[in-house]
Amino acid sequence: MPAAEPSAAAAPDAAPQPALPVARVAVDVPLAHLDRPFDYRVTPDQDADAVPGARVRVRFAGRLRDGFVLERSATSDAERALAPLHKVVSAEPVLTPGTAALVRAVADHYAGTFADVVRLAVPPRHAATEKAAGARRDAGAAAEAEDVAWPAPVADPLVAYPDGAAYEAALRTGRSPRALWQVTPSAAPEADWAAGFAAAARACVEGGRGAVLLAPDQRDVARLEAACVAALGRSRVVALVAESGPAARYRAFLAAAHGRAQVVVGNRAAAYAPVRDLGLVALWDDGDDLWAEPRSPYPHTREVLALRAGQTGAAALFASYARTAELQAYVERGWLRPIAQERAVVRHAAPRVRVSGDDDRALARDPAARVARVPHEVFTLVRAALPTGPVLVQVPRSGGRLALVCQDCREPVRCTFCSGPTALEAGADRTMTCRWCGRPQVDWECPVCGGHHVRSPVVGATRTAAELGRSFPGVPVLQSSGEGRLDGVPGHGAVVVATPGAEPPAEGGYAAAILLDTPLLLLRPDLRAPEEALRRWLAVVALVRGGADGGSVLAVGDSSGRALQALVRVDPAGFAARELADRAEAHFPPAAKVVTVDGAAAVLTEYTALVHEPPGTETLGPVPLPPREQLPGGDGEPLLRLTLRAPVREGAALVHAAKEVSGVRSARKSDGAVRVRVDPVVLG
């Protein structure tokens, strides 16, 4: 395909020719072999509007395509006469040079294309909003007079941590420190991560720079926005989230681009926000799976911000109750410096955490404490805590569709057609169906013992709530799950049964919390299962009153497990260090670079023949994927997964090799859909 089409003969223009007649355009063509800019001619009537960053329409391979002007130039290396820009859609420079550089870096890091990533970075145009924003900009800064005064200082939990005050002082003086803030989990004000982020943003703005602050979901974003408004004032802060709708999202985007807002808060959609004079990027809870972009090339927001901090020289602040192996790797490389409380302070501030049956006295009172799902200790703790406040009970499942095993031999019940896992549907008939292919399981017989009866080894939240309601008559029992999440609960006695991620905060903090079925979170077929389990548990600990205020957490499970031991010690840093060491020994990310390739058998055969792996690369598989896995544009064929694994030092070369294969297949117009992921979050 030619770089640009030859232009038709045109009459001489009476108007002066542009001084920079060439527009270098990023065309919206997500084909890997065309992942480069193309040159077009700027006509005299387009000269004023075709600014770098402007949206344009161009003719490409006989079709009109969208694009962005990357730069203007006096000359072109194209060997043919340049086709003119078909249209300048808007003179608004929405793709800044900094954003374009970040988009290119993210695309290269994840073996993707510029066109795929720029869709994540620049929201769709909303013409009416753009017109209104332009009028406000043209009216000048005097029209933006509201809230220009600084609000009164608010509580700043970050300075209560060693090196927290020094971090903020560095921001205030224009420096760019990079830190991992290990937030002590408790309901005390000292654990208010949102207030700490707001204080860091204020220090950055006081130093003359802007900030991008990210939280994983809308509830956390709302909390963060409120904290920032309290610390900086309404006019300095905007929230940029995709869920707010096209007009609101574009309005916030333009407020940042025009310099009206110095601080952008948001979720994944705000990672590329065009904040002027960027001085700080901050992200809360990088272990949350919402940070993994579900669209190609599947970038993780943590890595996007790390790339952005490296490119711009901005400060970075990652914070969480837990700690991922990825952030631990940044710490061990010296790229991040921990900000954490001393162990003695953590023991005093966090609630007391223990495991059921972990001492002789507990076992003497309840010999079944280590094997019972709800041992006697649970009822004792709930009964003691209810007079002083609510009690939270975390259950890994909601209770609608439950895992099944043979009642006689405990063999997992598998589909007789596809060997997928089965579940009992909610409802009166309790039909047993396959969770992969959906087929009902009629006249099931256990292939191991010949039994015909099944049971669920895991009781969901609904059944747990009913059992606790019978045990504590007269006590309100509330449920919170993904299907119906509570915003919060009052500070008086009640039992709240919640699934992971749906735990509502309690006024004044919970008096106690119970973690049921802890083995279930640990037994997920995923490399990150222990890390994710500890993250989920520490999120519960953070909702409970501190130890000095009588807060207590009881986990039901095997106290010898590494994750539960780290929970009892409230030691996410030690856990992450050991987890990273284990991954290094097993050659898993972040101690190795992994690329997974999903496709039909013929596609993977072609891929294997084309890829030129760097030295030390291991090829694993291919292995079959579950029938429910499908690819966009696929034809329904069974999918396989090929895994390529290389040492970190060869990581960039492996990603480049994967990108080259995509280019070759694109140029050949090879049949069969393929999905390439770099360092995927789920490593089963």
Task: Write structural notes for this entry.
The protein is α/β, with parallel strands linked by helices and 684 residues long. The protein folds into four domains: 1-93, no CATH class; 128-345, Rossmann fold (3-Layer(aba) Sandwich); 351-399 and 459-569, Rossmann fold (3-Layer(aba) Sandwich); 592-678, Alpha-Beta Plaits, CATH 3.30.70. Helices cover 30% and strands 19% of the residues. The strands form six sheets. The chain has a seven-stranded parallel β-sheet with strand order 8-9-7-10-11-6-12, sandwiched between helices. A six-stranded parallel β-sheet has the order 13-23-22-14-21-20, with helices on both faces. A five-stranded antiparallel β-sheet has the order 2-1-4-3-5, with no helix packed on it. Helix 8 links the parallel strand 10 (278-284) and strand 11. The radius of gyration is 28 Å and the shape is globular. The two termini are 40 Å apart.
